[in-house]
Every structure is written in C-alpha cells, then in structure tokens.
C-alpha cells in the first residue's frame, strides 16, 4: 500500500515545471503586493474590455452558432469514441457532474446577487418603459444561459472528439492535430498545456476563495463562527480541500459522481421549497415571461455591443464582457472535465445536453431565487435587499430570512455550497493532474494529494493578503488569447469531422455493383427460413471457414499472409491480414440473435417463424463499422464480399488524409519514420 502511494510519479517536466514557476511568481506578487499587482492587471483588463470587447462578442457568437450547427448537421450522429462505444455514466450522473463542475458555487453566489444588482442599478432607471425586474431577469438569463455553456461545450467537445475518436491524449494540444499534426507532441503542445494548467489553477483558486468567503459568512450568519477572520477561513479550507482530496483519490466514477448526485437532489429540494413558500404565482409567471423574453431577444442580446448607448458601456464591460471572459477563462478546466466524463455520447446528444439542460436549470434557479428576492424587496422588505445588493456574501442568507424555516434553509445552503466547493476542488485536482501528466492513467495518490495541497495553499495565501482580485484579473486577461485558441478548435473540428464522415460513409467502388448471383430460388428459401443457434454455428464452421480458407490459399499465392482464427470462441471466425504501419485488415463473422415479436410469429402471411429467438451470422470489421447479415451468402459470394471490403481498405489506406483512422499511435510513429527516411 505504501509503495503504491508513493510510486508512479507521472508528471511531465516540460509542462509542470514552467507552470509551477509562473504560478509561483504570480502568486508571490499577488500575495506580497496585492494592491499594486491588482492595479496593473486591472489596467490591462480594462484596456482589453474597452477596446477589444468586440472580440469576445464575436467569439461567443461563433461558439453558439457552431454548436447549434453541429447538433442539426450530418455530423450529429458521430460518436465520441468508436462507433460501438457506450456512455460510461448514466444520464442523470453525467448531467449532475456537468452542473457541479461548471457553475455550482457561482449559482449559489449570484442567484440572488446578480438579479438584485441589476434591479437596483441606475442604468435603466431613466427609461420608464423598462420594467427593472423584467430587465434584471433577462440579463441574468443571458449571462447564465446558452452562451456560457456553448463556451464550455466547444472545449469539451473538441477534447472528447480528438481523445476518444482519434485516440489522442486528453489534452488541449490534441485539439490541434488536424492543424499541427505530430508537432503537438513537441514545444507547441507543451505551451498549450502550460496555458491550460495555469488558467485552471487561477480559475479554481479564485472561485474557491470566493466560496470560502461565502461559507464563512453563512456560518457567521448562523452563529456557528463568531466572525470572518482568517483563522476560520483556514479551518474551512483545510476541511473541505481534505475531503476533496479524498474524493479525488477514489476516482471520478466514485467521488465526484456520488457527491454531485447527492447535491443535485438537495438543490432541487431547496428549489421546490422556495417555490412553495415564496411568491409562487409570481415565480411561475415570471419564468414563463422570462423564457419568452430570452428567446425573442436572443439575437439582439448576442450581437449587442451597446455602441449607441454609451452611458451603458461601463455596465456592459462590468457584466456581459466580464462574464464572457470569465466563462472562457474557465473553459480549459470545465471543458476538460466534461470531456473526461463524456465518452460514448454522440455529438448531437452532447450538444443537446450540454447546451440546453444546464442552461434551462439555470433559468429555473435564477427565476426562483432572483424573482423571489426582487418581489420580497419591493413588497415585503421595503428595499432592504437592494441596500445590501453589493454584498453578495450574505445576500442569499438575508433573502432566506424572509421565508419560513430560516435556520434550516441556511444550513441547507451552506451544505450545498460546501458540496459544490468539494466537487469543484475535486474535479479541479483531477483536471490539473490530467494536464500535467498528459492524461496518464497511472498517477500516484501522493501526486493527487500534492495538487490538492497546492490549491489550498494558494487560496489561503491570497485570502490572507487580499490578492484574490489580482488573480481574478489575471484569469480574465488570459481569456482573450484563449478565445482565439477556441476559434482554432472549431477549424480543427470542422476539418476532422469532414474526413471522419467521408471515411465512414464511403461505400464500395463502382466495380462491386456488378457482383450478383443467379440462384434466387435458394435465396428465397433462406429468406423465409429462420435459424436456431446450431444452424448458424454450422454455417460459420462450414461455409464461412471454407470461404476463408480458400481465400487464404489464393492470397498466399500473391505473397499476402492471411490468418484465420476464432479467438477461442466457436461462435466467431475472422480472417486477418497484418501490417507493420497500418491497422490490420479484419473481416469476421459471428453468431448473433434477435427476438421474434409475437405478432410476427402468429401472422399467417409472413414467413414461417416458429421460434421466439432467431439467429443469424453478422459481419464485423477491424475499424468498428456496423456489420450486416450474411445468411444468404454462398461460399463464393462470401469470398467476393471479403474482397469488396479488402478493395475498400486498400483504396482508403492509399490516401494519407485517412492516417488517423488506418493506423494506431504506435504505427503512426513508424509512418513518420518511413516518410522521413523516404524524403532523405
């Protein structure tokens, strides 16, 4: 056990060392000179937001448009993995983990704070035609809706696709393969991963710091802690990061999944409680109106840069542009985590779930808490919530004081924030280790622990010194170059998806259309006769084997060595031609079954089916394409069918653009060496 704990340090030096140096330097400056550092970074950030805000607007618009395009396009059925891959997590667990890693703490922090801050803002006060509450809800939806999840979705989809479809490492560098080819394994790839690792640590540290402050404020509000001093923040960080480390050590399929599933249930219960005891009619009506406003204003909001409303520009920079920058800066971390849990989904399923389900839940959540708070502020609290709108740390707890069971709901909120804190730290640790090890699957538990300790130390140092705003500014600044990187992800995806689709949709050559058989009576007899397992086994062990053996003999005359084997399975047989630099050609036949529906058995004018389960010989291939029934094939027809696929194999392998589908990682290195030798 001790040896396993300390063994297998798999950190990549080219990524880890430069990242830690940069993180340390940034952390020291932010911790020792927080005001000066923040002033410099804030100046840079303000310059970017003021002069280059249009870059964010156009980038996010393209992200949203591209995600919708993929969902509706012919590429939507492409699976994130082999064609026969299946999802590793249930739909509920998958969505729960998406939600917890993507916006958990933020939802608790801003669900009351953002609508109340918009509501109490003077920006639209002079326009009597605008309902402040309706306007506050609209912009809250805009900032937490489809646009945010499109940003996460682009990165998550790109990494999922190139990792599980192209068999590349789960890394940002892999998304550039169509553009950089093997150069992603060198210095360019390291630069990309260094950027991702630093961005992930900065983003998680900042968010966890704000989470600690809110938890501490809640505990003070519940009279558990006497104040919000640094001592109590140390206690909170040590306990929660310790639990996160323990969860990370158990693995994604255990720790994060369990915590996320528990938390989503508690979140829904709190949501239903507020709906039941709050202004129910107002909430339900407000949600309906809010969805309508969001849909009807979607395009205008997406493209609006407030160029003709100059008095609104500071508000625009501080809210919309800041949010776009914040989501983009978090995209490497959230996107990588989404990719890690999304193997086996189709692109259409991925886009639909990632884009719609979390956004819809955000709308419901923000409506229930935000609209309730604004209603209570106007009709019950006499503006008391508006007066503290600038203090989001306590706003949620102050809002709950106007509802029944205040003490219980306060504890529930603290519990939810705590679990979100743990799952964010947990998934962050997993993601950081994945980036630093180039997606190694054999990291030591000590390594996981060290990442957790690093997160805790940085958070505490900056909390104590007041350096979180500086780190937040640094995080937002990194969003500008990463938005350009994400646009290149789209270029890579389009290029790869086109090749992918053409490869798997590529049919037989024109010459195969002339192959036919005149024995139609035998074919009809086979069509109307349903087989049991023994009959198909006889077909495989006679007709199929005889066809393969005859083909093997003729291939050997052409200097081609073919192997016939069944892998110790009597219900399966295949012929294989091995290659040094290409994936092997495989054509196999296996015994498969299908249930016969009752109506089919009893119908008089259908073939005579007197068995409840019918068996048939199904083909399979080395590149995982979908097979088909060869019951009606004679020996010669089966040989001809193998030749069709062999002709297709040779045609596709002769085109260099298909190298990702016709060779493995090891073989591709041989391909590269052969090309270099040939060129010299």
UniProtKB/TrEMBL annotation:
Query: Where does it reside?
Result: Cell membrane
Q: Is Transport a UniProt keyword of this protein?
A: yes
- Per the annotation, which location comes first and is thus the protein's main one? membrane
Q: How does it sit in the membrane?
A: Multi-pass membrane protein
Task: Keywords in alphabetical order, please.
Answer: Cell membrane, Membrane, Transmembrane, Transmembrane helix, Transport
Q: Does the keyword Transport apply?
A: yes
Positions of transmembrane segments: 54-72, 92-112, 141-164, 191-210, 230-252, 264-284, 321-338, 350-369, 408-436, 448-468, 474-494
InterPro entries in alphabetical order? BCCT_CS (IPR018093), BCCT_transptr (IPR000060)
Identify one Pfam family in the record: BCCT
Give a Gene Ontology cellular component term annotated to this protein: plasma membrane
Q: Name one GO molecular function term.
A: transmembrane transporter activity
Cross-referenced PROSITE patterns: BCCT (PS01303)
* Family membership: Belongs to the BCCT transporter (TC 2.A.15) family.
In its UniProt entry, what is this protein called? BCCT family transporter
Lineage of source species: Bacteria, Pseudomonadati, Bacteroidota, Flavobacteriia, Flavobacteriales
